[in-house]
User: Fold this.
Amino acid sequence: MFKTVILTLACTLTLATDCFSADWFQFRGPDGNGVAQGTGFPTSWGAEKNVKWATGIPGQGWSSPVAGKGRIYLTSAIPKQTGEATGYTLTTICIDAGSGEIVWSTPVFEQKVDAPRIHGKNSHASPTPILAGKRLYVHFGHLGTACLGIDGKIIWTNTDVNYSPVHGNGGSPILVKDRLVFSVDGSKSAFIVALNAKDGAEAWRFDRESTSGRKFSFSTPAAVEVNGTTQIISPGSDVVHAVDLNDGSLIWKVSYTGYSVIPRPVIGHGMVFLSTSYDSPSVMAIKLDGKGDVTDTHVAWSLTRGAPHTPSLLLVDKELYMISDRGIATCLDATSGEIHWQQRVGKTYSASPVYADGKIYLQSEDGFGIVIKASTKYELVSTNSLGARTLASYGVDGNDLLIRTADQLYRITSE
Assistant:
């Protein structure tokens, strides 16, 4: 059940970008699209090169770091010994951005030893937190959602959104106005839910009415205002829904073939761009002005060549960039779907790309950071390695990169 401890609201919650527009406060940055503002970002680094600090992170987790007001936040599942079995303490960690020292660590939920098993590429702490004013929202899927103050004290918890996951938890929530919204796509249940950001009480839920044989997915929703209505766009297995932020009512939907959908959609040019994930992914461009079932009328274009299962797409001006799980990078025209170039840039990828200062930053699972020029012609800028496994997407603080590996958080700075 949801539990309210304190009922203070740190800032007026409008669109998520209103609180800390300059900070990297959610998954994929201020606008949720992987675009960083500013100049002077590092293009060369290594385990002992251009590292401002590297901090050991206890436990296991692939949530991306978020940053603001001199602090960095992430989550971790810290093993605990219970007799001969091991469970996890699901923990939120705050790090000083200047020194890399851990400021506080707050246990939020307990993961029992008999919890559903997770995928080998997942963790029990994969969803990324949201920083808004003096509040931090953390999400652990079926195990619960919570709000903490930036002092580490718990404000409220909600454990009422129950479902059976497949492969664990993955999708992050989004904060839009006064609602915390996330997708729930488990083995049997498939819905979208909104919590009141103030106290954690459920505001509404939308039943996908999914007929997919594999209902489970892990996508983070996107939000956009169209003709005065805020749409929450949530891809799931075999279908993407756009629902009204106010009450969760259906605006439009598009059907496709795909499950275990992971990438977060990106929005631009009057369209939403998404990937249908497994088994054979397609990238789709869908016009946003539809009503009802617009499968046959509002798909502007689609393609399969180089489409990702896991990494999110990246939209920069008119170009759409993507990296497939197998290491094929693609640049294409977002309005037409025409491919400008494709290039192999490594082996396996899960992290989503970031754009900063005219460059695209890619992070492979085996720890290689690939920097390429944002252009309709392929140009490699640099190849860098920390020598450690990473599945988490980049964080950004100022003009520094935050890279989470299996054991550490690195702050990478310019030369």
